Amino acid sequence: MSSLAITEDEAALYDRQIRLWGLDAQKRMRASDVLVIGVNGLTGEVMKNIVLAGINSLTILDDAEVTEDHLSAMFVVSSDHLGKKVAEASLNAIRRLNPLVKVAADVSSVKDKDAEFFKQFHIVCMSSVDIALLTRVNDICREHKVKFFCGSVFGFYGFMFSDLGTHEYAEEIKVSKSDTSNGPTAAKQRRLNSSNSKPETETVTVKNTSHFESFKSTLSVDWSILTPKQLKKTSHIYFITRSLLEFSTKSGHKPKMADIDKLLVQCTETMTNLKLDPSLLLDKFTPSMACTPEMSPVCAVIGGVLGQEILKAVSQKDAPHNNYFLFNPENNAGVVETIHSKAFLPPAKKSTVVEELIL
Questions:
Q1: Which residues of 104-134 are buried (b: 16+ CB within 10 A; e: fewer)?
Q2: How does pLDDT run across 42-97, given as a tens digit for each residue?
Q3: Is residue 340 within 8 Å of residue 161, measured between CB atoms?
Q4: Cα first-last separation, the chain
Q5: What is the pLDDT of residues 296-309, one digit of tens each?
Q6: How far apart are CA 60 and CA 86, in angstroms?
Q7: Which of 154, 208, 276, 354 fits 290 for a cystine, CB–CB 3.0-4.6 Å?
Q8: Is 215 helix (H, G, I), strand (E, B) or coil?
Q9: Where are the beta strands (DSSP E) in the chain?
């Protein structure tokens, strides 16, 4: 475990962040050790964001070599690195972003790593299209209370998923002063507020707890029990993402233009297995938009959100996204979906005021 102390150099470098998030949040980020599995356009954006924010250490795990596909959306490697190990090739670009962060490369395979390896990190962020591998790593992290994130970009489509287990965090909310005051003065204030259209408010910091489900459990949802009205509330982008993951897992690679017909067959199979009407997906899906290499703007959007969620998790500041973030290229917007299995019944949410900041 690294020291929580902030040096003078760090205080100067992170001055703006400390003013925004607070010293305690920056100390928690400074003490966090992060593992990123799989180097691509998406994780390149994630690594940039978390290293600039000032984590303690970053370990990059990938046994692949740099190919032409890596060059389409990555700024951490160039054509000079073709044929070299991508984890090692990306080191210099990442280190230059923030010399105060320790950055290391591991060129072995994630499939060879056991639980002891993952236990040394606070955060594991994985980019893979192998559902079984994602499930295995998530299960290990969940057992050992390591916060887990994963994500991938398929052309213009993309997603991220988070499993933080039981996660405590603090967030600032605005409340009426009458809600946090007692006594005669408060009674007088409530009477004054009742005669005003805009009651006086104050900002308080509250402590909350969120409960997350595993990746495997979100894949076992029984969608057939939902009414059409309930089903309509779930973005069709989730089912597109699910189909893309299942296609990639079976084929061993993300879909390409030559795979469009096979991808459409997979979409029908995915929806049928979920006991849903395939037209719910096929009528809204443009497969060619998922069969291109990673698109840099999509990587930037999802990588920005994923990096933000990692920083929120380690700093315990602000409410996290629970549990999917999906990018919809049809309107160039993201949507947060909470996918829970029927068996997942989290405790009621409770808030506790830990600090009052009167504005």
A1: ebbeeebeebeeebbeebbbbbbbbbbbebb
A2: 999 999 999 999 999 999 999 999 988 888 888 888 888 898 999 999 999 999 99
A3: no
A4: 37
A5: 999 999 999 999 99
A6: 9
A7: 154
A8: helix
A9: 33-37, 57-61, 102-106, 123-126, 147-154, 157-163, 166-176, 201-211, 324-328, 333-337, 352-357
What gap in Å lies between CA 4 and CA 56, rounded to an integer? Answer: 10
Return the closest-CA partner of residue 33 out of 159, 117, 143: 117
C-alpha distances out from residue 212 to 234, 335, 344, Å:
18, 18, 9
8 A C-beta contact, residue 240 and residue 281: yes
Reported as type and span, the H/E element at residue 69 is helix 68-71
**Contact yes or no for 127/40 (Cβ under 8 A):** yes
Which amino acid belongs to residue 275?
Answer: K
Spatial separation of the C-alpha atoms in residues 194 and 198, rounded to whole Å: 9
With 0.85 as the threshold, say if the pTM is over it: yes
Residue with tokens 């489900």: 213
Place of tokens 């964001």: 49
Q: Residue 139 and residue 145: Cα distance in Å, rounded?
A: 10
* CA angle 139–318–164, rounded 5-degree value: 5
Cα distance between residue 158 and residue 303, in whole Å: 10
Backbone φ and ψ for 15, nearest 5 degrees, come out as -55, -45
Q: Are 267 and 355 in contact (CB under 8 A)?
A: no
Angstrom distance (rounded) from CA 284 to CA 234: 14
Please, which residues have CB within 8 angstroms of residue 236's CB and are 6 or more apart in sequence?
280, 281, 284, 285
Q: How far, in Å, CA of 160 to CA of 149, rounded?
A: 7
DSSP-assigned states of every residue in 237-292: HHHHHHHHHHHHHHHSS---GGGHHHHHHHHHHHHHHTT--THHHHTT--GGGGSS
Which residues lie across from 357 on neighbouring strands? 203
